[in-house]
Each structure stands twice: as structure tokens, then as C-alpha cells.
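note to self: dont lose this again. the chain is below, predicted strucutre after it. 521 aa total, dont forget to put it in the shared folder this time
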Amino acid sequence: MSQTSAPATGGPRMNRRRFLQVGGVGAVLVGGSLAGVRMLGDPSPAGASPVGPSSAAVGEAEAARATTGRVVRRSLRAAPASVDLGGATVQTWAFDGTVPGQEIRARVGDELRVTLTNDLPEPTSIHWHGLALRNDMDGVPDVTQQAVAPGDTFEYRFVLPHPGSYFFHPHVGVQLDRGLQAPLIIEDPTEPGDYDEEVVLVLDDWTDGLGDSPEDILGGLRRNGMSMGGMAMGDMDMGDMDMGGDLAVDPANPLGDDTGDVAYPGHLINGRLPAAPFTVTSAPGRRIRFRMVNSGGDTAYRFAIGGHRLTVTHSDGFPVRPVEVDALIIGMGERYDVVVTAGDGAFPIVAVPEGKDDPAGFAVLRTASGSVPAPDIRPAELGGRLMSYADLAPTDDVALPARRPDRTVELLLEMADGGRRWLINGRAFPDHRPMDIRAGERVRLVMSNQSMMFHPMHLHGHTFAVADRAGRGLRKDTVNVLPGQELSVDFDADNPGQWLVHCHNVYHGELGMMAVLSYVA
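---
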């Protein structure tokens, strides 16, 4: 049976007290469809009830996952730290004192057990970005768990369901825009691996200790809204702006004219500023697999390696039919794997903030002696063939089987109050009513961006297929929805619980652009 959710109309606010009243750890705030607000424990349409993170269904789904029987244990300490970014030492928050945090690497089917110790002055959590893991380990406070209080510990424990390039970060406030992120690499022993070595590159926009704190930036956006071309949006009447229909996107500005709210004083590749760049040392002719993660808070990057073409092999952890390009754009929360054949010399690796005037992220690929390229170099590849979603198609083994959607959920993405609030279906999180889905359904999300900024929309606990013809079924968990455009994605409801869907611009999310997909039974 097909169902389309209607826009939200209002209702009471979700809050932490209600979360604790209805079941404590593992309970959830909400679960429903979009015609008002329903709290957990309130009647659900047709007698349905929400499937909470501590439900038997979540445990059964975890028990059904294929496992190697191997356990990988790690400990993480989130704490204030003094970090050298390469010529600039800053006070920030980090995992075990490093930016990015130490990589976790395991094999598909392993059980990961990570003990988090919170030595921060405020609560925190860990979200395992991109993983279809068990719901009570997803790390979203007041939706899947209580936040980990200062001085407390929490063990995250789950089976790793899919191979690929992932990362982890907090899901509390704007903590992501500090140094609290690290890569998670899940290996597939059966993968052919047509490369000689691999390198993980974490791209990140940086302000903490170099400019305003993330909390001060968020406070300024709450007070003043965003700006566009120097004009304060909070002073404009958005009702005078016609946002109906598809807005034309300039090919020279593929994400639109306004790509972010924050001007960052620094951009990092693997925790290093251009003054003392991260260096990849290899040899001519070697094939290098680069696993790239954009952990930034407000910045998409145009990525290229001078003198090299990029063979794109994976998107958000899932393999694609290889495509050769000169450059690609990676939105916040996206990951791409590319393979390059190393040339002879020293070459710039650049991550240019798309649509911003900020200095670029910079690293070096070195296979021979010679001078280091200038940090401000802009290789010709940046203006060459730019990858688009239309270029990518999933390999046959990961393509989502054809099936008509059983349920359609509409997500209207809007700006309000001049950028002081960002909305889904007319509501700012947590003042919304989640959207019901049922196990076994094929669900279509129709995301309509009625704002002038792109939104990297991320779905927790699932991987979807881009349903638009141009996407050719590309498997992803984070997708850039362009200004004025509509984009549809399909996923199978095969991982029960309460799952966040939100914009991975950390400021848009914190100002309201989040919602919950609620499994009901």
C-alpha cells in the first residue's frame, strides 16, 4: 500500500524529561507520521506502536547479521586537548588528543566494542556515520540513547554490517566542528583490491582556536541569521523571494551560488594546515587507493591531485563502476574512494572550499625529490572533468533490486527567519512529528529543497539508492540536494528502530533541519 506523508501542522515539543519518563536508556521520544506530534506511548494511527531502540526487533536484527566471531576492542577518550595543526597550536576537543582521531580498522562481520570515556565539560556521544548498525548504538541523544555525561563511560557494541569507508563523530550540538572525528575503515577480505597501497584523507574546515568557536558561530546564526553576498538574510522578507519550481544551477557553481554560512580561517587535510602539509610518500607507478572523508561542518570541497586523474571506485562505502575524472565535489558527510597511478615527482593534493574564498586544504604526494608545490597552487585538474552523480552507477552486486515503493515520505527543506531556523516539513527539530515506516517496506524519500543553499542530507542506519534517472541507482547514505531542486532516494526498511534524517551541515542541523523516521509495528 502506498502512503504519502502530509506536512506537519504542530503539536507539543519533545524534551529530555519526556524521553526519560517513557523508558530511560533505549527509549525514544517519538514515532509517527507528519500530521501533528505524537510522543512515545501516545496512540499511533491504526493502533501501531513505535519500535524503540531497546525493542526485541532491534536485537533480532542484530542477531541475524553475518559475523566472523572476531571482536575488535578500542577505547576512546573525548577530552580537551592542545593540538598542533602544523605551525598553529590550538586548544580544542579531540579523541585521545589527536586531530583527526586514530583510525579504527576492522573487517566486515567483526563485532566492534568501543568504550567511550567522556572527559569533556558537557555530554557527548558517538555516531557511526554511514553504518546500518543496531539502533541503540547509533549515538543520537534522546532518540537512541541518553548522552554520555561528563565523567561517565559508555560501551558501543555492534556487528559491522558492510565494508567501506566511514567515520565517527559526536551527535551533540556543534561538537563535530571541533576535533572530534576519526575514520572507520571496514575491510572486505574478498575484495579484489587492484591497488598497491592505500591512504585515508580526512578533509575538515577549522575554526576552533584560529577564529570563533563553533558555539559562538551557532549563537551568531541564531541571533542574526545567515548572510548572502554581504546582505543579512535576517533583514530580508523571504516572502518576496519566489522559490517555486527548479532553480537553474550554474555549471560553474554546481552547488549553487551560496554554499555555506561560515568563513573558516583554516582547512585541514589529515589535521594539517598548508604551512606544514600532510605528505603521502610513494613511488612512481604505484597505484594508490585514497579513501576520502569530508568531516567538515559547513564546507563542501572540490578535490583534485595535480598531474593525476582520479578513478572513482566507491561512494559512501559502496562500490561503483569505475569512472575516470579530473576532480570531484565531496559534500559534508560524503566519502569517496579513488585510485590514482602515482607520477614521478612532488604533486599538490588540494581540497578547495567550493563556493568560498577560504584558503584551500593542501597536502603533497611525493614520489621523488624536488621542491614542494606552493600551498596556493590551483592545479588545472580542478577545472577539468568534474564528477557528478550522473556519472556513477552501482556495481551489480550492490544495486538495489527494482521494486515499486510501498510508502513515499516527503521532506520539504526550507529556511526560516532569515537563516535563524532550518526546517523539514515546516518544523524545526525537535518540534516535529516523526514519519512512520514499517519493516519490509520499500520507502521513497522525496526531498524538495525550497532554499537557496544545498543540503547534504544524511539518513542514519540505512543506505539508499538515488531514484532519479541521473543517479542510476547510486548507493549512498549522504546526498547533496541542490537549491530549488527535488531529489528522490529509495531504501528498504530492514533495520528497525528510530532513525534520524538530517542535513549534515552541522549548523543547519542544529538550527532545526532534522527529523526522525520511526519504525512502527
